[in-house]
Amino acid sequence: MRKGVRKLRALAPTLTLPRWAGEGMMLAVLVAYALLYASPYGLRVLTVAGVYALAAIGFQIVFGLGGALSLAHGAFFGIGAYATGILGSQWGLGFAATFPVSLLVPLLLALLVGLPVLRLESHYFALATLGIAQVVHLLAVNSPGLTGGANGLPGVPGIVLFGWAVPRGLPLAAVVWSFVALGGLLAWRLAHGRWGRALTLVRDDPLAAGTLGLDVGGLRLAAFALSAVYAGAAGALAVHTQRVVSPEVLEFPVMVSVLTIAVVGGRGRVAGAILGAVLLLHLPEWFRFLERSYLIVYGVALLTTIVLAPHGLTGLLDRLFPARPVPLPKPEAPPEMAIPGGPLLRVEGLTKGFGGVRAVDGVSLTLEAGTITGLIGPNGSGKTTLVNLISGLETPDGGRVLMGGTDLAGKRPDRIARAGIARTFQAVSLPEGASVLAAVAAARLERDGSIAQAEAHALWALERLGAADLAAKPCAGLPAALRRRVELARALARQPAVLLLDEPAAGLTDGEKAELASHLHAIAATGTALLVVEHDMGFLLPLAGHVLCLDQGRPLYAGPPEGVRSDPAVVAAYLGEGA
Amino acid sequence: MITLQLLVNGLALGAAYALVALGFVLVLNATAAVNFAQGDLVMAGGLLGVALAPHLPGYLPLPGLLLLPVVLVLMAGLGLLLAAAAYLPLRRRPPVAVFISTIAAGIILQNGASVLFGPEPRAAPPLLSGGTLDLGGLVVAEQSLAIIAVAALLIAGQQWLFGRTQLGRRLRATAQDPEMARACGVPVTAMILITFALGTAFAGAAGLLLANRYFVTPTAGGDLILKAYIAVTIGGWGSVPGAVAGALLIALFEVGVSSVLSYPVALGLLYATLLVILVARPQGLFGEAARRRA
């Protein structure tokens, strides 16, 4: 297959297209098909494909961009369908009233269940959302007074738009696909804007996203709720197409179809949702001999895609027609953040226990503007825990983290990041799918108005560390030393008042360490206070103006770096008693 | 008396659930993969019993029990197939890939079954002759006792295999740390294949046991995977005895609430309980800490 792709590429070596070209071509083909070739039955299939495309676009937001495998998407679809079905057939309400309700009810449910459930990790989340779907299905089947029970409700009225009763056939297909176009455009803009970038960072690395000032929980909840609105709209349109609502809309096959469409089409891509929906809704027509077991085709398509083409059909298209490389922006210094002089951060009596172990036990320290403080201690002495406590990744049991008079202890990582604290991680984590520039620009998403601006500022940060030539490279496959450099640029792009570095010199050569030290001096010279966790004394002691040594969570030594080597307590902690 | 009767019924159901949950947890421990097809594999085991039943010689008094070894072997084979198609090609990819591939495998199983057998509920033959026993006023179905006995034997066999044999040590080493196990010369891929075969055989056995008393339909898997999951969540993610205990608890709850109210209410309450446990105590009732999103 790879060979075939290369051959095809060789045929069209100069063919590069703007990002929306694929989407535009697909839309044109669809319109042509609907106008020229579709029979009444063909139009019906196309209409249903539109319904699923809309549901799948919503699913791309929560699953593709947000990375949360929500198995409640089918339930939101069904709830939208029932809202329209009940209000339309029982209460005689028209489209203008039922459609908004079909968006609102799934939205409210998503907000209600989303708060607790979204905190769960991958498969916990998936199965919890499946549980929600099963509960909704049970309720629909077992409340015949409201839902018509297992038989459902017939006689749902058609769509009436501004007094025009939309007839079946081409007009209905056109109306449904207008909603798809509208929803697709909105989702595409969101996905390619700041919000979409932030959401993908939350998907790829939620820890880093929080420390870059992004409200992880809020982003997830918004994605989940928005996807529910899409599903509700699709459900409403489905019922108008069928004129009946029955528990089938809440059964697992709906969810399976949406998931398959998204994965086969290409995760996170609006074009993937449309391509997948049109293809998979037409597949059973081509495999008509399978009759009601068309879902076998879905299963096989899903399994084959996930094994052979993990990026789906749009991924294959991307390899055939690689997008035109986007020119790099001009580097631009972000607006200066005023860093006051004097003590920037005061930590007082910080404590944290895990089980019976006191990992951090009453640590106090002060970080002055423009200084570099070294944090040392044997393995397990609580250095990383202290950094995690200050940056909000762990909640302290006691003590205060004061910055400009505000106690940040126990606050969310994004709140702390926005107060002016940035950090790097001991194990560098960068979003593997992103370019270096995009990875660094993630640090500015919360502050800058547009992606272009964020990238200009990101390039400035890379330039300051002499790494501007990396900007267009993918993060995946970067050597360790450069990964550390990129991560430092990302922290720097936030223009932090306080910068926490967790073993920045690990794995670097002597030359690279010297270079890093000069960069760190330059950062401190702008007024930023640095706290550097490090094992390499040859690197740290000349760098730091002040050193704090921890042992078993307690401060053992605090003072000038010259005194460290001669301090008997420090020597004992490192070399053991009696050394 | 009625309470005792319910208790026996609940224990029988719980014993079968325990096999489902056990298979689920074994695969989870060995591969860190959530096998979403586990419920559909239970269904497949039940339908296998339905399909094989007409070929049983009529004069033998132990219909279902004779099928058990056949179902175990065939299902183990299916487990190998599942691992080869849905796990091994994806082992270096994020866990969600395996999760989706097992969803796909479940869809194929479910709809394959619905093509072959139709949507109607069917019953597999009873393990024994299908009568009842009068234990001093307490009338119990032979099937219930047989389910409890067979499940107990299989679980004990699993404990023996993992606890007392060389193969078991290798399986446990693989579950604990595949990299380390490989470094120590354990053929990790083979161990994973064996785990999938075992887990699937347990699901199949559960299917055969359940499909006599509760019938089996091609779509029965959805509820079963959730129950296995709830059992594992109650028992502590990754704990084998926890999974068995969780399964018994669920079954007793289900039988109890169904007898007083109704089955849908019992099911709804179970799912609601799942949500509450997940939110309030995701590490399970006696388990180690589960990983949460930050």
UniProtKB/TrEMBL annotation, chain B:
Alphabetical GO biological process terms: amino acid transport
Classification via InterPro entries: ABC_transp_permease (IPR001851), BCAA_transport_permease (IPR052157)
Protein name: ABC transporter, permease component
Keyword terms of this UniProt record: Amino-acid transport, Cell membrane, Membrane, Transmembrane, Transmembrane helix, Transport
Compartment(s) of residence: Cell membrane
GO molecular function: transmembrane transporter activity
Keyword Transport in record: yes
Membrane topology, record value: Multi-pass membrane protein
Family designation: Belongs to the binding-protein-dependent transport system permease family. LivHM subfamily.
Chief place where the protein resides: membrane
Cellular compartments per GO CC: plasma membrane
Pfam families: BPD_transp_2
Residue spans crossing the bilayer: 6-29, 41-60, 66-89, 96-118, 138-162, 183-209, 229-253, 260-280
Species annotation: Azospirillum baldaniorum
Claim: Cytoplasm is one of the keywords in the record: no
PANTHER family: ABC TRANSPORTER PERMEASE PROTEIN, BRANCHED-CHAIN AMINO ACID TRANSPORT SYSTEM PERMEASE PROTEIN LIVH
